Amino acid sequence: MKKNALAAHAACPCGSGQPYGDCCGRWHAGLASGVHAPAPEALMRSRYSAYGLGLIDYLLATWHPSTSPGELDLPPLKWLGLEVRHAQATGDAGVVEFVARYRDSGKGVRLHEISRFVREDGRWLYIDGEQVGPD
């Protein structure tokens, strides 16, 4: 597992403006002790940060078993920013629309996606996402 360390006081990669330790870092660190993101947006932000930090175990653990790839090999992307456009939870179902920017082999890319989440046994899990065409 590739894992890049990030100090708790450093800015969180998800762009929330909070320190990593008070934002996504608490979900990353708390996974083993049963501390989970409380809402779809928090889970989506923590997964974005996990991609940037190479936290493969976290990504797989927060992926619903019915859609999880089982193993994951992260390409060498440079994650540049995240914009959450809409987040909603109704009962045990959630949706988050976001735009993530990254650089792949020097080329800038925008990923605009509507992701689906489900809450099972008190924890939110990523199901899948549908890419949205150009704005």
So, CATH architecture? Answer: Roll
The protein's oligomeric status is single chain
What is the rounded Rg? 14 Å
Order of helices and strands: HHHEEEE
Could you give the distance between the termini?
A: 35 Å
Main structural class: alpha+beta
When the domains are counted, the total is 1
Low-confidence runs of at least 5 consecutive residues = none
Number of helices: 3
Indicate the percent of residues in helices: 10-25%
Strand content: 35-45%
Model description:
By secondary structure, the chain is α+β, with helices and mostly antiparallel strands. It has one domain (20-131): Nuclear Transport Factor 2, Chain: A. It is 20% helix and 36% strand. The chain has helices at residues 24-30, 40-53, 56-61; strands at 78-90, 93-104, 107-120, 123-131. Strands 1-2-3-4 form a four-stranded antiparallel beta sheet, covered by helices on one side. Helix 1 (24-30) packs across helix 2.
